[in-house]
């Protein structure tokens, strides 16, 4: 067999992608743009049909970029057998939490099962889904053995955590990749392969180290967001503007990184990934106190935000029940349509449960998804007639001045009015 490091370094090989969501589709397009061939597999007939027709469902991949990739040879299929054509298979499936906030590994299990049926000699298999340290060894080693392959002789295994920030200017092809092989030889092959896709690869000693690195990245964010959310609550009790305090602290040129409070945490990483680490720690009889404390603070923020809105209405002589409330922003972060695990959705539902008549302004999420959550959509030009507006996601280009002018009370959970330099007496910040 041709030396695999040399092969992946020089030959025009084919990438196979399992899972064509927020991670898999950008990776596939990046591989195509790097001069490789690519085939994408997904179990959803609807998703594959849309992608094959040039319609992207992912914010970070435009229809134009997708169609250009198709012209360059990208293919999409629901036939897992097509993955046997690939020289490297990248598993990019969801890794959510279950009902009791335990890791749900069913998608990774399904990916491993697919590997056991389609893997062939000569392939690199790399897991990109966020998960606990040891997953690659626990699931992929048995999968390739079931396929009749031998590690480091006929197949190579690695973990390289996805790094996707929807709506960010930095895309998959711009972001350094951490890569760790199950063995040293597998790491050599994986580094060679990823170096053909992205310009910067940081190698670690093992797949387990790469798995933990991903969890550390997002746990760092979750803990610091929890800290600033807690300090924000304290600042409110002390009648101090937390946004002013953060701006002041951020002038220090060393030893401080600004994090900002909000109505809670959302998306595919921050609410979920630290729980994978905490779960694995519990199995090792180790207490992750920082993670658990930050999680308690962050999961409490939607209720805290709801109560602050209720207090603002009460001060104005109104009850939440019967009030018309405009929720501005339902996505979990600005300028994306992604509403997974969104704290804004949680706040909107809590307000509705208290009897408020809630309407939503979010042109990124759109009327269909807004209706899916049980609310009616509002056009940006129709922001009058509400008792209060709650800025829960600070999308760019929304009519913030008109909102402050037309709505008597505005609760700003994102500090957008301060950031834009818009002063209004009827605006209260988190």
Give the termini distance in whole angstroms: 62 Å
How many discrete structural domains?
2
Question: How much of the polypeptide forms β-strand, as a percent range?
Answer: 5-15%
- How large is the radius of gyration? 24 Å
Low-confidence stretches: none
Q: Note the main sheet.
A: 8 strands, mixed
Give the structural class. alpha/beta
Q: Regarding CATH, which class of the largest domain? A: Alpha Beta
Silhouette? elongated
- Give, in spatial order, the strands making up the sheet with the most strands: 3-2-1-4-5-6-7-8
What is the number of E strands? 14
Provide the helix percentage. Answer: 40-55%
How would you describe this structure to a colleague?
This protein is of the alpha/beta class. It folds into two domains: 4-205, NAD(P)-binding Rossmann-like Domain (Rossmann fold, 3-Layer(aba) Sandwich); 221-429, Rossmann fold (3-Layer(aba) Sandwich), CATH 3.40.50.720. It is 41% helix and 13% strand. It contains 15 helices and 14 strands. It has helices spanning 4-10, 24-33, 45-52, 63-71, 106-118, 135-146, 184-194, 207-237, 242-249, 273-283, 289-315, 343-353, 366-372, 400-406, 416-420; strands at residues 14-18, 37-41, 75-77, 88-91, 123-127, 155-159, 177-181, 201-203, 324-328, 357-361, 376-377, 388-391, 410-412, 427-429. The strands form two sheets. An eight-stranded mixed β-sheet has the order 3-2-1-4-5-6-7-8, with helices on both faces. Strands 11-10-9-12-13-14 form a six-stranded parallel β-sheet. Strand 13 (410-412), helix 15 and strand 14 (427-429) form a beta-alpha-beta unit. Helix 1 runs parallel beside helix 7 (184-194), helix 5 (106-118) runs parallel beside helix 6 and helix 11 (289-315) crosses helix 12. The N and C termini lie far apart (62 Å). The mean pLDDT is 94.
């Amino acid at each position: 067999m041709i030396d695999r490091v040399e092969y992946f370094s020089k030959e025009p090989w084919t990438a196979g992608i399992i899972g064509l969501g927020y991670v898999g589709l950008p990776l596939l397009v990046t591989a195509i743009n790097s001069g490789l061939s690519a085939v994408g597999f997904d179990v959803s007939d609807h998703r594959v049909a849309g992608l094959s027709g040039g319609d992207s469902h992912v914010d970070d991949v435009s229809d134009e970029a997708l169609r250009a990739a198709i012209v360059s040879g990208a293919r999409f299929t629901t036939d897992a057998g097509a993955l046997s054509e690939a020289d490297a298979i990248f598993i990019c499936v969801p890794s959510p939490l279950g009902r009791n906030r335990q890791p749900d590994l069913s998608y990774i299990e399904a990916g491993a099962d697919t590997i056991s049926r389609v893997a062939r000699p000569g392939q690199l298999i790399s897991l990109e889904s966020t998960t606990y340290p040891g997953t690659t060894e626990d699931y992929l080693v048995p999968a390739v053995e079931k396929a009749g392959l031998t590690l480091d002789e006929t197949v190579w295994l690695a973990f390289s955590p996805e790094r996707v920030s929807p709506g960010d200017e930095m895309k998959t092809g711009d972001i350094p990749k951490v890569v760790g092989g199950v063995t040293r030889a597998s790491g050599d092959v994986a580094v060679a392969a990823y170096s053909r896709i992205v310009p910067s690869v940081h190698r670690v000693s093992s797949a387990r180290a790469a798995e933990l690195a991903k969890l550390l990245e997002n746990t760092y964010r979750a803990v610091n967001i929890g800290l600033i959310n807690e300090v924000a609550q304290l600042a409110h009790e002390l009648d101090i503007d937390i946004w002013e305090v953060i701006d002041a602290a951020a002038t220090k040129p060393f030893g401080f990184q600004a994090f900002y409070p909000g109505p809670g945490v959302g998306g595919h990483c921050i609410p979920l990934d630290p729980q994978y680490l905490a779960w694995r720690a519990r199995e090792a009889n180790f207490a992750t106190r920082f993670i658990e404390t930050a999680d308690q603070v962050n999961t409490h923020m939607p209720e805290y935000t709801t109560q602050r809105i209720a207090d603002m209405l009460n001060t104005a002589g109104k009850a939440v029940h019967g009030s018309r409330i405009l929720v501005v922003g339902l996505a979990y972060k600005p300028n994306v349509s992604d509403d997974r695990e969104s704290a804004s959705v949680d706040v909107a539902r809590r307000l509705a449960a208290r009897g408020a008549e809630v309407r939503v302004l979010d042109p990124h999420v759109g009327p269909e998804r807004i209706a899916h959550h049980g609310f009616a959509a509002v056009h940006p030009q129709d922001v009058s007639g509400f008792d209060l507006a709650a800025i829960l996601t600070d999308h760019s280009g929304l009519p913030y001045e008109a909102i402050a002018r037309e709505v008597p009370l505005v609760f700003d959970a994102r500090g957008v009015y301060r950031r834009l330099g818009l002063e209004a007496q009827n605006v209260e910040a988190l």
